[in-house]
# Entry
Amino acid sequence: MHIALDFDASGHSIRACAPGQITVILPRGSREEGPEVMDAVGPDATRVRQEILRRSVVVTPGTLWRDWPPQRFEELLPEHLAALVALEPPPEVVLLGCGRRLRWPPPEVLAPLTEAGIGHEVMDTPAACRTYNILMADGRRVAAALLMVEED
# Structure
């Protein structure tokens, strides 16, 4: 699914979401290279760099963790979310995308966010991608922690 957004070239935005992958538009001026990084035309008809990501990822306006350790919902541990608390600047809200369907992690997995006073929403990964773009365009300190591995 292609995601329409109010385009903000100053941070990472999510361009598209498909089963097992997302496409992230890199911030303007990014010099990142890699096998899945390519030039493209952005939503505002200017040149952008974008990257296709096929593993679990954390996206914030200023940070892109390309290989977030949990690859499946069942692997999600409190320490994976505790790492988000240490982001600089810390997020106001964390969007946890749990794959193609909504699944709620146990309270102990979400505890690091709750204890740090960081808001969090659990949703399917496509909904987390759409919500991330809305909050990011609104200038919110948002982090999207997205599980990519699709299960049968």
